[in-house]
Design brief:
alpha/beta, Glutamine Phosphoribosylpyrophosphate, subunit 1, domain 1, Rossmann fold, 18 helices, 25 strands, globular, binds 2-deoxy-2-amino glucitol-6-phosphate
């Protein structure tokens, strides 16, 4: 999604803003732009369609210079990707705005402004904000006041940055529904939609709250006001992941780096959360034990990959904690007339903690009489975490690749911790708890073993380079893993992929199977193995080529058109975590072969902050 960077500094901000935009590239975008208040009192703007590199070239031809500026990467919502639709948007020659989110009432506002003589250059919803601030500036005392008056007229979601040639060395920012952080420098202040954009200049951040408005001015002055206009002291937090997370190191792509980080981040996710033979319920917050003891049902809501993690958790929670579980995608849940049984815990899963539908689902759920809400999330200080009663951080560290990898396996690990914590309070046998805890501790080492198979998986990937479709099969808790495998393949290689519970094959999808349809299956050694093997025979009998990721002890042999890759033995309950890895690597290598943009696949954004 769109990205914002802003800086009021002691030096020329062009390089700071450009570097910030580069660091935001992972979010997905189609154009970029920058506006700087120059020393001669004028406002100067450069914009370009395509990558930040295109804007950088434009800046080489026509550099910007000044100590205050804003910049943006745009992911088109209203109006096609074009230079004229790229941000910053201006009203006249003296005021510029960058915006993430959607202004839902932009049409009536546009009509009103046009009637008042304002001329629109773009098709965007954002341009109304620029003109509204300009119009309000005539009546307002200053830029802050003009922005506040404008916000009162906006419906929808926004993170905003505004500069005006009439207020040199000032940026006014505001957030509602889209994240915005303030970077605290030494005598300098910065604005960003994501702390990663600013790590080159600071590691200290204020995470603005819903409705906050902020004024950054010369000398590093930062003034935060809440929605009512009351000055607020917001906590300054130090970013703990270091700047290394934002670089690829020796890896060709962030996705590959993040796949290989999984043993380490799973260990980080477990750290301090396991007792000798049980999971520590306190990890979920001081009130968790009292709340979890009362839980009789669980509703899990999430999007995309996070939703798949929720689907796996349903198998675990029902089996080990004995509580009924409902799992739903947030965009459906939020518009349903949900019936909430007494003592139901509402659980959201999100890498970013800013996904618009998941956040809206949480807000909707808060009005529906749930016992409490729990967020399992990778970003501390995100909206989802702040607005939930309980939270558990997945500790994956920043994930840059649009295709989620380590965020997913750490979510699964956190969900197993949740299962164990809830299970203990619901009478789960101590021996079973002990076994699962020991298995969790051994997981990072087993993951290393799977990652060592990378060369063999790469060799398998060549069979997919010319294919247009693929079918993924799994059973039980591995059906969601098949779904996740299919999602990975389609989002980065653009191959159409579908996933089915293997038992559904003969109810329809078997009609698709022929030599052109590779079938990928995960076959751990669990109670459904024999049934899965029969399903795979059905595929072979129709001439389908099989790629099976199987437990090293299952009797499954390589033969013509049946490729078997053996994975290390793992506790069968944790197999969904381990079996995710070969599917990630397979998608990665297929995408590399096809030459797609692995880290920033077309049309997708890392953090989906609009509905
Ligand atoms: C995964 O590869 C996707 N990029 C996407 O499905 C993602 O999981 C989804 O948008 C939810 O994001 P979240 O976890 O940040 O809420």
């Amino acid at each position: 999604m769109c990205g914002i960077v802003g800086a009021v500094a002691e030096r020329n901000v062009e390089a700071i803003l450009l570097e910030g935009l580069k660091r935001l590239e992972y979010r997905g975008y189609d154009s970029a732009g920058m506006a700087v208040l120059a020393a001669d009192g004028t406002l100067q703007r450069r914009r370009a369609v395509g990558k930040v590199a295109a804007l950088a070239e434009r800046l080489v031809e026509a550099p910007l210079s000044g100590r205050c500026g804003i910049a943006h990467t745009r992911w088109a919502t209203h109006g096609r990707p074009s230079e004229v639709n790229a941000h910053p948007h201006q009203s006249g020659e003296r005021l510029a705005v960058v915006h993430n989110g959607i202004i839902e009432n932009h049409e009536p506002l546009r009509r009103d402004l046009e009637a008042d003589g304002y001329r629109f250059d773009s098709e965007t919803d954002t341009e109304v904000v620029a003109h509204l601030v300009a119009r309000e500036s005539e009546a307002a005392g200053d830029l802050l006041d003009a922005v506040r008056r404008t916000l009162a007229r906006l419906d929808g979601a926004y993170a905003l940055g505004v500069v005006s040639a009439d207020a040199p060395d000032v940026i006014v920012g505001a957030r509602k529904g889209s994240p915005l952080v303030v970077g605290v420098g030494i005598g300098e202040a910065f604005l960003g939609s994501d702390p990663l954009a600013l790590l080159q200049v600071t590691d200290r951040f204020i995470y603005l709250e819903e409705g906050d408005v902020v004024r950054l001015s010369a000398g590093g002055r930062i003034e935060v006001f809440d929605a009512a206009g009351t000055p607020m002291e917001r906590e300054v937090q130090t970013f703990e992941h270091g700047d290394g997370a934002a670089s690829r190191g020796d890896y060709r792509h962030f996705m590959l780096k993040e796949i290989h980080e999984q043993p380490a981040v799973i260990a980080a996710c477990l750290e301090g959360r396991l007792g000798e033979r049980s999971a520590l319920v306190e990890s979920f917050g001081p009130d968790a034990e009292a709340l979890f003891s009362r839980v009789r049902q669980v509703h899990i809501v999430a999007c995309g990959t996070s939703y798949h993690a929720g689907m796996v958790a349903r198998y675990w929670l029902e089996r080990f904690a004995g509580v009924p579980v409902q799992v739903e995608v947030a965009s459906e849940y939020r518009y349903r007339r949900v019936v909430v049984p007494e003592d139901t815990l509402f659980v959201t899963l999100s890498q970013s903690g800013e996904t618009a539908d998941t956040l809206a689902a949480l807000r909707f759920a808060r009005e529906r009489g749930y016992l409490a809400s729990l967020a399992i999330c990778n970003v501390p200080g995100s909206s989802l975490v702040r607005e939930s009663d309980l939270s558990l951080m997945t500790q994956a560290g920043p994930e840059i690749g649009v295709a989620s990898t380590k965020a997913f396996t750490t979510q699964l690990t956190a969900l197993m911790l949740f299962t164990l914590a809830l299970g203990r309070l619901k009478g789960l046998d101590a021996g079973v708890q002990g076994e699962l805890v020991a298995a969790l501790r051994g997981l990072p080492r087993l993951m290393e073993g799977v990652l060592a198979l990378d060369g063999e998986i790469e060799a398998l990937s060549t069979a997919f380079a010319e294919k247009h479709h693929a079918l993924f099969l799994g059973r039980g808790a591995h059906f969601p893993i098949a779904l996740e495998g299919a999602l990975k393949l389609k989002e980065i290689s653009y191959i159409h992929a579908e996933a089915y519970p293997a038992g559904e094959l003969k109810h329809g999808p078997l009609a698709l199977v022929d030599a052109e349809m590779p079938v990928i299956s995960v076959a751990p050694n669990d109670e459904l193995l024999d049934k899965l093997k029969s399903n795979l025979q059905e595929v072979r009998a129709r001439g389908g080529e099989l790629f099976v990721f199987a437990d090293e002890e299952v009797g499954m042999n390589e033969e013509e058109y049946v490729h078997v890759l053996r994975l290390p033995r793992v506790h069968e309950a944790l197999a969904p975590i381990l079996y995710t890895l070969p599917l990630q690597l397979l998608s990665y290598h297929v995408a590399v072969l096809k030459g797609t943009d692995v880290d920033q696949p077309r049309n997708l954004a890392k953090s989906v902050t609009v509905e």
